[in-house]
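Quality-control log, excerpt.
Job 1 of 2 completed; input and output follow.
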Amino acid sequence: MVKIGDISLGNFPLLLAPMEDVSDPPFRYLCKKHGADLMYTEFISSEGLIRDAVKSRQKLDIFDHERPIGIQIFGGDEEAMALATKIVDATQPDLVDINFGCPVKKVVCKGAGAAVLKDIPLMIRLTEAVVRSTNLPVTVKTRLGWDEKTKNIEEVAERLQDVGVKALSIHGRTRTQLYKGEADWTLIAKVKNNPRITIPIFGNGDVTTPEKALDYKNRFGVDGIMIGRAAIGHPWVFREIKHFLSTGEHMAGPTFEERVEACKIHLQKSVEWKSEILAINEMKRHYSNYFKGIPNFKAYRTALLCSNNLNEIYDLLEVIREKKFELIED
């Protein structure tokens, strides 16, 4: 049984990675429905929380059906991280997660996210500031190192555990790799197999199929797997992996009806959580993912992208449902 503090996650949990502009409540609703064991919010700027920025505050929204759920924060200043943690703590998530892995330039330039990998003492001070500011379990998501010459994740893992971190999620790339090349899980395995490490170690990077999930579980011995991009437009990935891990057999992929229904639910939940206009605009990035691999669908995708009328979009989705397009396996 894998546990983070007092949170039980089963024998081999599947985690939904925190993804900016993706891991919002509507998307998380679908991932939870289809088997995600632990989810995280989009990452939230500690400075934004302290300034009471509207976008940062909205990201604090969590719901009981999502539990267990962690709120992820990032920043490069100890005092700001401590104050942000107290704000997060008041919203009563199940845990607080620190982002030391985001490679995006606008985050790194502020000395946050993966930038902290260049200054391990600062990383430890930031982590200590968060741990001191909450009674909730604190976890960390990070990368192997800043670049090929500084893959210091083994040292980092020990030091984070020593200051009170209760679980560690490791993306198998350096910051300079961004999302290019193949994720290296051998170093993740070294962290997991370190006799000093007693906290759960979750691997992240390139798990796109049930076969890979089983292979990485067996080869690298991690306590669970964090899934990010493979869940975009395909929240069924969690149930598919769980089925394969337990039976060794593939379960049928989502039907065309399920794809349309998921798209519709995503839109409905977005309208409920955001303004109608914002929901319509932000859903446009998801249509291609939900209907990926469907032949002769271009005209309908274009119509969905061009429409700014909610009722018209619902009508389009019903027309698409009734067309019952044939699916092509990836």
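Job 2 of 2 completed; input and output follow.
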Amino acid sequence: MQLKRKRSIDTLAAQAGVDADRAFGSVSVPIYQTAIYRYEKFGKHRGFDYSRSENPTRQAAETALADLEGGTRGVAFSSGMAAIQAVMTLFRTGDHILCSDDLYGGTYRLFEQILKHYGLAFDYVDMGDPRAVEKRMRKKTRAVFLETPTNPLMKIADIGGVARISRKKGILSVVDNTFMSPLLQRPLALGADMVVHSATKFLGGHNDLIGGAVVTVDPDLGERMHFAQKAVGAVLSPFDSWLLLRGVKTLAVRVSRAQQNAEVIAAFLAAHPFVRKVFYPGLPGHTRRELHFSQADGPGAVISFELPRKSAVPPFLNALKTILLAESLGGVESLITHPSTMTHADIPLEEQAAVGLTPRLVRLSVGIENPDDLVTDLAQALRKAKGHR
């Protein structure tokens, strides 16, 4: 049922949306900034009646995302969290979902503070060991939800291994592919059933839109996601759909440049005496590095690292000039965040500590700037942090 990719992913990305405009052949997909569509006559329209249900610009973006991930259906939402919520509509009271144990704080918040009240049960496990995952599955386990690499500790999940076990047991496998993007990792080709994205990140790439997406292999699952999109109404707007398409067109060059920069910066940080530990799949010695490269085409552009002491974090972050202190990733600008108090603040401190997330850790999303400028900025900020008492 999975679509075969006829062209390279670089070409698919660059030509995202081409041929979507059947009326005039516009290379840039038109922005259909409309809520409604006129019927030709009673009982007959041209495939569109109300933009919550369908919109030509959003439809073009959804098709592009499905092509990039190698799926049969893409469904775009108003945010990554709206996309994950749509996936959760597949489940019912009493169902159990097994998740990566180092999960994005917003996803954890949705699961633990909202969906648990509706009778869903969530557990967390290291998804790099399929046997450990299998042992934690219950009779009522309906899905596994993976991040790989995880946010922010860059733990590697075994997509293929977990997907195979899940499929044998009739359990859905869902992979959050935000960190890698389809340019570097395509979970559906490894056996996963569904992929979710925060399209705000690498797919959009310019920090100018909020969006999310679900891509499925099974057309029936895709139709159920489309129904959830229509019923709940958390849709990607026409303008944001156009921004997403424009961002996807440069996905290959942006991710490639950011990844090149990240490899330079990771090596610099790993050799720096004031950096306690670096988490990056591109570095030798990263846990399950070989597994990562067996399922991904590169290490990515996100690096996490620890400073020697918690007190060094504020002066280090405040001293940065080129790298921006902000809560996101995947854009052309380099961004840095403090997960414990920012992106993962809703996870209790004891649970942060249990998975290895400490107040000493910062997460750096490397952009496309000149790498020498980024290294210079990090070096001067580390000097200031080291001298701060």
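Post-run check on job 2. The chain has a mean pLDDT of 95.
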